[in-house]
Amino acid sequence: MSQAITDFPFAAKTKTRWLIVTALLVGLAGWIGYDLLAPRQTSLREFDAKEVAHLETGMWRSYYDKERVKLFGQLAELLRKQYRLPLWRSNAVAYQAAKAAFVFKGGHGRSDYEKALPNLVKYYGAIREVSDIAFDVNEVAKLELEWWIIHRERNKYSRADLDRSLAELPAAMYQLPVEKFAEHARLRAEAMLIRDQKAEQGGVTEADWQRIDELLQASWQSLHQSVN
User: Fold this and answer.
1) Does 212 map to a domain?
2) Which domain holds residue 86?
3) 173 in Cβ contact with 133 (< 8 Å)
4) Which positions ≥6 away from 226 have C-beta within 8 Å?
5) Disulfide: which of 35, 87, 202, 204 matches 198 by Cβ 3.0-4.6 Å?
6) How far apart are the C-alpha atoms of 77 and 86, rounded to whole Å?
7) Domain count across the chain
8) Span 119-156, pLDDT tens digits
9) pLDDT band for position 29 (50/70/90)?
10) pTM
11) Residue 66: which region, alpha, beta or left (left: phi > 0; alpha: psi -120 to 50)?
12) Rounded distance, CA 75 to CA 90, Å?
């Protein structure tokens, strides 16, 4: 009898703990579900060009250093700051972009590179869901992949091809003439080629990365002006 009396408070405390844990899990599931599925809308024209450029510089470094987790985190941060996606959704969408990047990185030809396209479609599909501009998801995903290919196989293409492909992507997203993005594309391509040339010559220094960041800031500022 005394043992039963002694065990009762313990059982009551255990039940209380389980009820608290269950309530927390239900609350967490509700938060995640709302975060992932609730309707949202954001303006693609409103972003901090300097911050986007700084994050892009960091993502390039992570990509070439094969730091997948770091790249994922930077992509999620970019999605929260540029497209104002909430926490869980930004991570889910960042996963698609990071996966596409490393599927592409492991490729050795167009047929391999195109295996990244489904993830790019999911990535841009998620952005389209919150976008105030009705862009064609499949077209934009293909244009993203195309500039990746042109940049990777730049010995087969001209500098003009790279510039054009980099301008066609935002033109399709913002539904504006491609000519409006020529300066954005030129500066972004120049930043890419500095990284490539320095890597081929033995390594990219901190001074090189600083110059790349400056070019990307000018590039994204040009895009911001073009769409506003």
Assistant:
1) yes
2) 39-227
3) yes
4) 170, 174, 176, 180, 181, 183, 184
5) 204
6) 10
7) 1
8) 999 999 999 999 999 999 999 999 999 999 999 999 99
9) very low
10) 0.81
11) left
12) 8
